[in-house]
Amino acid sequence: MTRAWHRRCLLLLIAFSCLPVAAGAAEPLELAVKAAYLYKLAPFVDWPANEFAAADSPFDLCVIGDDPFGPVLDRVVTGQRIDGHPIVVHRLPTAQRNSGCELAFVAGSKVQSAKDGLRQLSGQPILTVTDNETTPGVVDFVIDEGRVRFRIDNQAAADNGLTISSKLLSLAVSVAPRRSRPTER
Question: Which fold is adopted by the domain 3-176?
Fold first, then answer.
């Protein structure tokens, strides 16, 4: 991926973080911003080298549990690629190990709570995203001063084998840092 493309993605992320979201009537705008964030976050994350079987394998973006996006997410990602991988959206009722997702928006449902869904995906190379501050994923959407923003748990990313770009970390409202490893003697 070129530096110019990364810069454009970064500028779009900044622009999205500046869009105001009013209560009530702006809910469709809030969902559209979150849907766009889902695929705009991915270029700033490194997955393990063997994550994709081929250079053109799909990038699997999953919505797990109740789907708040509906057709908005499909429209936003239509024709988009992440590092050459076409984006394919999957809607799954529950999270399961080896789901094949690279990015999972974990909403939870009556069948499986977001907490249980995150537990199922933990330790796998999946960028988990939530909008539930009591059960945050690697990335957690928040409304900050009327704008959709996000928090990042960099340790949870490391636990899942992911590396998040410092550029993306700098845009987060807050970052839970990676724990430092004890020095060897």
Answer: Rossmann fold (3.40.50)
Per-residue pLDDT of the chain (185 residues; tens, 9 = 90+): 455 444 444 444 444 444 444 444 346 889 999 999 998 999 999 999 888 888 889 999 999 999 999 999 999 999 999 999 999 999 999 999 988 999 999 999 999 999 999 999 999 999 999 998 888 999 999 998 889 999 999 999 999 999 999 999 999 999 999 887 655 55
Q: What are the boundaries of each domain within the chain?
A: 3-176
pTM of the model: 0.83
Rounded to whole angstroms, the Cα distance separating 5 from 26 reads 29
Q: Is 25 exposed, middle or buried (0-12, 13-18, 19+ CB in 10 A)?
A: exposed
Amino acid letter at 69?
F
**How many Cβ atoms sit within 10 Å of the Cβ of residue 74?**
13
Closest CA to 128 of 59, 62, 30: 62
Residue type, 78: T
